[in-house]
Amino acid sequence: MLPLSHSLGAGGAGPAGSSSSSKHAQRLQLIDEAQQFHPQMTAYLESWGLHNVGFGYDLCAVLGSQSTGKSTLLNKLFGTNFDVMDETQRRQTTKGIWLSRGANMPVLVMDVEGTDGRERGEDQDFERKSALFSMASAEVLIVNMWEHQVGLYQGANMGLLKTVFEVNLGLFQSSKQKNSGLKDKTLLLFVIRDHIGATPLQNLQNTLLADLGRIWESLAKPEGMESSNITEFFDFSFTTLPHKLLQPKEFDDQVLALRQRFTDSKHPGFIFKTQYHKRIPADGLPHYLANIWEQVVSNKDLDLPTQQELLAQFRCDEIANVAFAQFTSDIRAFRRPIEAGEVLETLGGDMAAHCQTALAVFDKDASRYHSEVYKRKRQELLDKLHSALSPFVLGQLKNLHKRVLAHFKRTLLENLRGDGHDFGEVVRVERAKAETAFAAAAALLMLDGTDWNTAEEEAQLREDIQQIADQCRVEETKKMIVLIERSIKRAVAEPTEIALGKPGPEMWDHVLEGFRHALQQAEAAYMQKAKSFNCTEEENSIALRSLRQKAWQSLRAKVDEITADSILAARLRNIFEDGFRYDEYGTPRIWKPEDDIDGIFRKARDETLELIPIYARIEPKDESLLPSIPSSADDPEQAAAVARGEEDEFNFGASLVVFSETRKADIGTRFRKEADAYYVEAKRSTVSSIAQVPYWIYGVMLLLGWNEIIAVIRSPMYFTFLLLCAGAAYVVWRLNLQGPLQAVVTAILREVHRLADEQLRAHFSQPLLQPSMLKEEPVPASLSRPTPSEAAPEEIELKEKIL
């Protein structure tokens, strides 16, 4: 490969040349004579300041025979410094295709190797390739020729132009298929050199147009273009220049005038019109030109629109990757807080802003390329941006779900703490608030152009809210049932105590009547409150069953409390005392020898013993009073729960038994012992009344104590004490307090007697014996002392008299 660049005189090299050369003087050998494309065109564009101008540049090329002054013309027109021919040697100067920027104008100029050169001889391969390349890339083709070549076939490059026309027919045929008949025109500017003025320009123009028309008519046109005209694809412009050596001043003036047509957009003959531009952004030009040259060299059909699309795809992908890389760097800040469970309030706006920034970066550079490709790549980039944001959106929705759910549960529990609330209304209001808050926050995350939706997340939120509501409903139902159970306990406690305190055949009827009334009130209270819980019929049935069981268990607990051993024994003892120690008027009995103590004792004892079976089993006279409460075994679900250990087993039939037969016998035995003690006491009181002092003893006592009586009467102190005793006796008699006074005195004496008896027994139970006398002799069975249980009542009575 030849050196990348060189210049005339003190001209610089490429972008890294000497500082003495300006950036407009730099030139690039774009394609060398070995048909290799230069890979560093982008660096030259940057050094020329054209890399980021978008469509704000123009590209022209020059064609013509070798040594016709093409490079000289370009240098004069655009201020370039292409190598020119040495007049003394007359040899080829331009090899390959060179590229440079025009001085003080955004124009790229290609100096193409001349045709019909002796160096290449009959090898026209590079001539055709360079012509095709120039046609595909340049907006304007400057055809440089001498005046005397007009009318010639080879001299006027008509053969080369014929090749160009044939290729363009193929190009525009593809363009027509892809762009609905839209055709890109190219301007052919014929510059006729060394014009002496003998033949007017119009005649020269007519000659060239006639030759071009004949060439066009001779072409084998593609299908559908048989009747097409050359002017549909090409525009033509003609100008002349005087002889450079013979008329140097006129030549320079004409070149300056021609330059204005390239630089002044208001000039009527302005050359760089919009319809000629290939619509290739400057930053994509190197890739575009490289692809065109690759297809030209490979002898492939040159498809200009396809090359534009390929370039657009390549550049749009590059631009999109740059925008996406910056985008991913910007959104990386979202990851940590979202993974930590935070809810970013401004996430939706931030995501939209980052997307707009990335699209703005893309649009700035990519919008200049092929519109369809640009739109497609823009949508691909947008989809890629949305895909990158999708995990953050899902994480935000997950965190939002947790926060809304926690807030719903917290506010629901706060609103359920007080009394008098409607559970269903509270749940409905809080559910609406939670769903509205979630939907509003989720809507802020939905970006335009996405197919995101929150239907699944909202459905999951509703499901979780329902679970929390159901859990709270179960807990509230339990609380309600507990409160109702407490009310049942309070309601059945007093009636049960009263009924069991007055035992009789209809005792359980009274108990069950009170229980039925309390249960009815409890069920009514439950049904009234359950309406706000939105409970189903099945749930109400289960709750009422549980309520009945709990209520019955509360009743049984109260019955068990009242029928405890100590309480029941005291109750039976009181009932026995009422029948044995008091008469039918409630007056305490003072036993006399003539009273039928045995008959009264047996009657009171038997009547009391008859109450024990009544206490032992809940068995009302009216069986309809028994509640209908199913046992655990009767309900499959409850039976399964009992089997799992979740509930205690409940057996209504077994609960009717208050205490067993064994306990009945034990209670009866203990009661008989206590009753026997009362019987012995009554008998003892009659024995003491029988052993009274004879009446004549009182006369003897009066005779013997006459002096003392007189002493008392005469003594004021003794007499006053006597009057007080007599007054007290009168008051006792007048108020009928003999019985209570006697009972009090008797109780005191009995207690004194008991204490004395205990002291005497304790004293005499320890005899002072010698050690030799400690050996006990066997006592005959006839003399052995019977046990208290074997002693006859007469022996007990005798013992009491002795004591």
From TrEMBL:
<dbReference type="InterPro" id="IPR008803">
    <property type="entry name" value="RHD3/Sey1"/>
</dbReference>
<dbReference type="GO" id="GO:0016320">
    <property type="term" value="P:endoplasmic reticulum membrane fusion"/>
</dbReference>
<dbReference type="Pfam" id="PF20428">
    <property type="entry name" value="Sey1_3HB"/>
</dbReference>
<feature type="region of interest" description="Disordered">
    <location>
        <begin position="773"/>
        <end position="803"/>
    </location>
</feature>
<dbReference type="GO" id="GO:0005789">
    <property type="term" value="C:endoplasmic reticulum membrane"/>
</dbReference>
<keyword id="KW-0812">Transmembrane</keyword>
<dbReference type="GO" id="GO:0003924">
    <property type="term" value="F:GTPase activity"/>
</dbReference>
<feature type="domain" description="GB1/RHD3-type G">
    <location>
        <begin position="54"/>
        <end position="276"/>
    </location>
</feature>
<keyword id="KW-0547">Nucleotide-binding</keyword>
<feature type="topological domain" description="Cytoplasmic">
    <location>
        <begin position="1"/>
        <end position="692"/>
    </location>
</feature>
<feature type="region of interest" description="Disordered">
    <location>
        <begin position="1"/>
        <end position="25"/>
    </location>
</feature>
<comment type="similarity">
    <text>Belongs to the TRAFAC class dynamin-like GTPase superfamily. GB1/RHD3 GTPase family. RHD3 subfamily.</text>
</comment>
<keyword id="KW-0342">GTP-binding</keyword>
<keyword id="KW-0472">Membrane</keyword>
<keyword id="KW-1133">Transmembrane helix</keyword>
<feature type="transmembrane region" description="Helical">
    <location>
        <begin position="717"/>
        <end position="733"/>
    </location>
</feature>
<dbReference type="InterPro" id="IPR030386">
    <property type="entry name" value="G_GB1_RHD3_dom"/>
</dbReference>
<dbReference type="GO" id="GO:0005525">
    <property type="term" value="F:GTP binding"/>
</dbReference>
<dbReference type="InterPro" id="IPR027417">
    <property type="entry name" value="P-loop_NTPase"/>
</dbReference>
<feature type="binding site">
    <location>
        <begin position="64"/>
        <end position="71"/>
    </location>
    <ligand>
        <name>GTP</name>
    </ligand>
</feature>
<feature type="topological domain" description="Lumenal">
    <location>
        <begin position="714"/>
        <end position="716"/>
    </location>
</feature>
<keyword id="KW-0256">Endoplasmic reticulum</keyword>
<dbReference type="Pfam" id="PF05879">
    <property type="entry name" value="RHD3_GTPase"/>
</dbReference>
<dbReference type="InterPro" id="IPR046758">
    <property type="entry name" value="Sey1/RHD3-like_3HB"/>
</dbReference>
<feature type="topological domain" description="Cytoplasmic">
    <location>
        <begin position="738"/>
        <end position="803"/>
    </location>
</feature>
<keyword id="KW-0378">Hydrolase</keyword>
<protein>
    <submittedName>
        <fullName>Root hair defective 3 GTP-binding protein</fullName>
    </submittedName>
</protein>
